[in-house]
């Protein structure tokens, strides 16, 4: 998921992903680009040639188009051996025969980098209108086929070095409104991207680096066949994903193992700074899936108000623990540290408020109106360093204290104020812990 990230986009190829950089050299490597005869795949193949790859194999179904593409690359990059191979990469039997031929060539024929740049041609129809049989074909092409090529790469009999597998995905895996007329394309590409991240959980980047990325909206033959014209979108320069693939097959990109990125992001902001800190701190950032509610630890004076506020914070936020009463300082010392570490605390004063789901540490600590900003700051200063991620420490603004008697909708109104403050912090990036007033 790409929630709470705001990264500038580049309209031209980024200097940091340039194939001319020595750090991105592909010298000595054999690169296989599946779908490399046209469009995005061809741009990726061209940039690997520019990065000095020893051999670039481009695989596609149409012999004539494939040969023409290979000739162009060979003429432009005479130091790279360009090999055209006819292969229906979405066909299981053709895939087996293709990789059997590579394996038969011995160690010299082994592949170091695979880029899966093809996709099943989507239908611009609702799922049930096009029919499940037609829809399932997209899953074969966008999930089964890349997994099969990934498996073949990993299990090569003559390759002990680090390998790289790059999956050309799409923004549609998270931006559902970008192409609602292509529901199965969105669904199957989402599943394919999820499959990549699941395999990456099992294999360290030192063995095989696996990264999925959105190439931008590039005008290709496939796009044209789907019914779009050059005026449909402000299309992306094809060298943006072309260069990004070269960078993704370098050690600089190892921190994105199993994750999803946009090829036209300002990559310098991803490599370093606050964005990088978020990535390093959060193993689920830039991955597909449902993160669920934002976990919150709540401080309050009474169980009655605590229960009402916890309920009002739903559905966006999940109160996982509640500390209250006159002994709150002792309870904080005993309970806050383990909760911030994602561990179950030894509770001195048990209560039924909160879910007691400690699998994820709180991203927000909320203090009720009975606490001062000075007390919140003191707790932050004493325990904030324990948190694995940035935490919002939210406390009432003294200048906005309610008057007695409290209105009937007091808990609802306070909860909404807290939501607004935390959501504002999240939208800013949620990269730094700070005390915030509501």
Key phrases:
single chain; alpha/beta; 438 residues; 38% helix; five-stranded parallel β-sheet; seven-stranded parallel β-sheet; 14 helices; elongated; Rossmann fold
Fold blueprint:
Blueprint: E1 30-34, H1 39-50, E2 55-60, H2 63-76, E3 81-86, H3 92-104, E4 113-116, H4 127-130, H5 132-154, E5 163-168, H6 183-202, E6 208-214, H7 221-226, H8 239-248, E7 260-262, H9 267-271, H10 273-281, E8 294-300, H11 303-312, E9 317-324, H12 328-340, E10 364-367, H13 373-383, E11 392-395, H14 410-427, E12 434-437
The portion of residues forming beta strands comes to 5-15%
Would you list the SSEs in sequence order as H and E?
EHEHEHEHHEHEHHEHHEHEHEHEHE
- Give the beta-strand count: 12
In the CATH hierarchy, the third-tier topology of the largest domain is known as Rossmann fold
CATH class annotation of the largest domain: Alpha Beta
**Which quaternary structure do these chains form?**
single chain
CATH-derived architecture of the largest domain: 3-Layer(aba) Sandwich
Strands side by side in the biggest sheet: 3-2-1-4-5-6-7
Residue share in helix: 25-40%
The geometry reads as: elongated
Tally of helical segments: 14
Pfam families: adh_short
GO molecular function: oxidoreductase activity
Keywords: Oxidoreductase
InterPro entries: NAD(P)-bd_dom_sf, SDR_fam
